[in-house]
Structure formats: C-alpha cells, structure tokens
Write a structure and sequence with these properties.
It contains 19 helices and 12 strands. The protein has about 525 residues and is mainly alpha-helical.
C-alpha cells in the first residue's frame, strides 16, 4: 500500500451494492457439488500450478527464467483469489455468529448502562457481565455491525501479521469480488489479471448499480488481461465517472468542500505539504511550474527537476518571485471536450483534463471560455482515440506533436507515465530507414525507453488504433493502448484489426461543433 492509498483510501463495503454480512453464501453452503467445484477453482488450482513450477528445472537461460516468473505471477494472482474467498467466507461466518449473539437476547444496548448486580440477576456469566459493562462505558454495542467488523479485522490482522488498515482494505476488496464482481474473481483465480487490477475494479464499483458494475467488468476485463495496473486504474476511474448515478458536476461541487492543505513532519529537518483541491486548479499549478522549469534551462544549474519545481513554488510564495516583483507564471492547462457526446447527452458527457482525467462538462466549458486560444481535436466517437487535430494554426510537425500529445497521453512504453512534455516523437519504422513522420508511423516515447528499442533489443508492432505491441528481447509480450482510447471492445489484437465502424450522418450542427468547413454540393444541371 503506497502513499496514495494511505491518504486517498476511501474503500467502504457499504458503498458496494451487496447484501449485508450474515446473509451471504460461503463456499460450504452452496451444496456438495458446487462446493467441490469452488474448492477445485480456488484451492486445488493454485496447488496444481505450484506443482508444475516445482517440476521444472532451474532456469538455464534468461528466457526460461522470465517464463517462470510469469508463472509465479499467475500463481500469486490465484493465491490472492483464494485469500479473497477465505476473507469473505470467514467474515461471513463471523457475522453470522455475531447475529446469533444479538438475537439470543443475552446482551443489552450500550446506552442502558446497567449495574453489575442487574447483569448478575439476568443470569449472565462473568465474561458476559464484563463485556456489557465495557460496552456501556465506551458507548458501543458488541454486536453492532461496525464494531464486530472492527473486531474481525483486528483478529485477522493478527493472524495475517498485517496492519489493520491493510486488512480492512483487503476485506472490502474480498467482499466486492466474492459477492459482486464475480467475473473479476474468476479471472483472478485463473491467473489472467493481477491482484491490483482486481482491487481497482472493486474500488471503482462503489456507488454504482449492479448492472453498471457488470458492464464495467465486461469492458475492463478483456483490456486488463493485457494491460498494466496503472492503465487499468485510469480506465476504471473513467468508467466509474461515466456510470455514476449522481452527475459529476454535483459531486465535484460537493467535493470542493474538502479542499485542504495538510502537512506533516519528517526526519532530518524536513516536512511534507499535501495540497487537495479541484483538479483544474491543481493541474494548472503543476503545469505552470513545469512549464517554467522547462522554459528556463540553465546548463550551469546542477539542481534536479524536482528541486527546481520546489524552488519555483517556494520562491513564488515566500519571496514574491521573482525578487519581490510578483509571479509572472502563466497557467497552462489543456482540456478535451467530446463534441459528439456533448450533443447526444450533455448531462452524461465528460470532458478530459490533461494530466488528470474526467471532469464536469460545465468546468471544461468554463476553462475553454477563459482560454486565450482554442485547439480543435477530433476523436473517434466509438473508441475515444484522438484521430486528428486542428492544423489551421500550426505547421504539420507541431500539429503532429499535438495529435500525439492528446492521442497517446504519455510515453507509450508499458507502465511508463512520463508526460508528453518529457517524451519525444518516436518513429515506429526508423526515419533513417525511410520511415515517414506522420501519425501512422509515430508515437510518444521517453528517451529512456527509446534506448530500450535502439540499444537493448526491444521491439514493437504498431496497431491500427494507435496501440503498440511490445516484445521483450526474450519473448514477453505486452500491449500498450493510447490513453485517449476508452473502449477496446471487439479489438482483435492478434489479427491486427480494429472493429468495423458504422456509418453515421454528420449533420450541419455536428459539423459546426467539430469546426468542419462547409462545402456546397455541386449544382446538377437539368436535362
């Protein structure tokens, strides 16, 4: 669990559309036949894979070692699926026991505050008397759902030698997998997806309807079997925003109330500040600082990029940067507004804030209205991929950089999150060997990962939708899909083919929004 999870962990099983504890099925309550099948899936299958690994000889070359690591990764996913089932089933047994204690009427409500004599007259044991006296003192009810849940988590943390926060997060994920995201659990138990991917799907199932959760699984799982965890996180969050029953502008308005500046002390005389606020503000601040750092290079300056970012903010706030004259930094923010979606249903349409993700359409339109200039971007209404940019203002090379910036979103190496400003236009077919500089032969790639291709033996294949199929020097394959693509349904990666598009009618209204030039149809002479 990283720093992001510590400060942004909002896992809550009450936000999942599942039954309350004490009313759910467990592995042992589904009949003998079903129990045997579930046992084979969740308990016997990992043992079979472990036996297979155990039979293999120690790796003699790097390729064999990587294949064994891949098998080990599958085994870890399968074991985590087994762990999730155990968490959910054990907690269910615990909840049923607590419910029985509650209905036995040998406990009393916490606010009754009985005396020891009154409890003894009820025929309670010394242990029950002590428990009820403690409940009255702390104003809790022992069989209350939250109290019993906390008790189970504490016991499980001891059993697992883990922290209670971590166990709590695991339990919420386990409940979501066991009783809601069953297809995700099946994929995890088969070793097809990672545990982090499963957690992201459950996390983003919060606050949704059951049908929408299943739709999210249908969209994400084919992609998750090929993609990195960070890519799944971004797409799961976007789907959650689109499917959430409460409009995003209302949630955004409510969330603004939580804006805050927090700080804490660290060792060696250091401290950390955390700024929480509307995404458009935070991204503007980050982009402004980054723009200043990149635009003012100094070859003799030995400071790192991180140090330069900090010094820029520090000087602007404390010294009235530069030198008391006030800040001359200008905010820089980019927003993509899907015109066709906005026309179809403005209430459900989501804009995209570069560097963050989905934001309310009202916020995006306001940012666009205040922008000193406008860049039109044409996106595929089916997949969301950026397919063209406005070329009226820029030369083709600059237009190409803008297209790649919005189509790819970041370095197109698996798992790399370097932003477009820190990436370069990379040729798929080398320019020196005749490869053209156009959108079908270019992608964003940072310098470090360009080295992987040119010096370390990595190869990639460019697919029609802008995806890149990477192949490692020893045969491992991973597909990296552009950040602007929101749907991979019906993509046939093996056949190098994207879905067949349906013809749609571009009405005058749609053309005006997209900025298309109008051409009058030629007049037909009468015969």
């Amino acid at each position: 669990m990283g720093i992001r999870d510590i400060f942004e962990n909002d896992d809550d099983s009450h936000r999942l559309p599942i039954q309350a504890p004490g009313l759910r099925e467990t592995t042992g309550t589904t009949g003998t036949w079903c129990t045997a099948i579930q046992y084979q899936k969740y308990f016997a299958a990992p043992l079979e894979l472990l036996t297979e690994l155990n039979r293999q000889l120690p790796a003699q070359d790097l390729g064999e070692g990587l294949n064994q690591l891949a098998l080990l990764s599958r085994l870890r996913s399968m074991l985590d699926a087994t762990e999730a089932v155990l968490y959910a089933d054990t907690f269910e047994l615990f909840a049923r026991g607590t419910a029985l204690q509650s209905s036995a009427d040998n406990r009393i409500q916490a606010d009754d505050e009985p005396t020891p004599e009154e409890l003894e007259n009820q025929g309670l044991s010394p242990d029950d008397i002590l428990a009820n006296l403690s409940a009255g003192y702390y104003r809790v009810t022992p069989h209350d759902e939250e109290v019993s849940r906390s008790s189970f988590i504490a016991e499980a943390a001891i059993a697992m030698r883990d922290t209670e926060n971590h166990v709590s997060s695991k339990l919420t994920t386990a409940e979501g997998l066991r009783y809601l995201c069953t297809e995700t659990l099946n994929s995890l138990s088969a070793g097809e997806i990672t545990s982090q991917t499963a957690r992201e799907i459950v996390k983003n199932a919060q606050d949704l309807e059951v049908e929408d959760v299943h739709r999210m699984e249908e969209v994400l799982l084919p992609f998750a079997k090929q993609a990195t965890d960070s890519a799944v996180r971004q797409r799961a969050r976007r789907l959650h925003e689109k499917m959430h029953p409460k409009p995003i502008d209302e949630r955004h308005k409510d969330a603004k109330e939580s804006r805050n500046l927090r700080w804490w002390i660290e060792k060696d005389g250091m401290a950390v500040a955390q700024l929480r606020g509307p995404a458009e503000d935070i991204i503007s601040v980050v982009n402004t600082v980054e723009h200043h750092v990149v635009s003012n290079p100094d070859p003799e300056n030995s400071r790192t990029r991180g140090q330069l970012r900090y010094d820029t903010i520090r000087d602007a706030l404390l010294d009235g940067w530069p030198e008391g004259g006030g800040s001359t930094l200008k905010t820089k923010v980019a927003v993509t507004i899907p015109a066709v979606e906005m026309l179809a249903d403005p209430r459900k349409a989501l804009a995209d804030l570069e560097g963050y993700g989905p934001i309310p359409m009202g916020t995006a339109l306001k940012l666009a209205a205040d922008a000193p200039s406008m860049l039109r971007i044409l996106t595929d209404p089916w997949s969301g991929a950026v397919i063209d940019v406005d070329r009226k203002k820029y030369s083709p090379p600059q237009a190409l950089r803008d297209l790649l910036r919005f189509r790819d979103g970041q370095c197109q190496f698996p798992g790399c999150n370097r932003v477009p400003e820190r990436s370069e236009v990379e040729h798929i077919d080398d320019w020196a060997k005749g490869g053209g500089t156009n959108r079908t032969n270019t992608k964003l790639c940072c310098k470090r990962h360009q080295m992987f291709k040119h010096a370390l033996g990595w190869n990639y294949t460019y697919l029609p939708d802008g995806s890149v199929m990477w192949r490692t020097p020893h045969g491992q394959v991973c597909i990296e899909i552009p950040g602007s693509v929101t749907s991979v349904q019906n993509f046939d990666f093996n056949a190098d083919r994207t879905p067949q598009r349906l013809d749609i009618e571009l009405t005058d209204r749609v053309r005006r929004v997209l900025g298309y030039e109008f051409e009058e149809p030629p007049e037909v002479e009468a015969n």
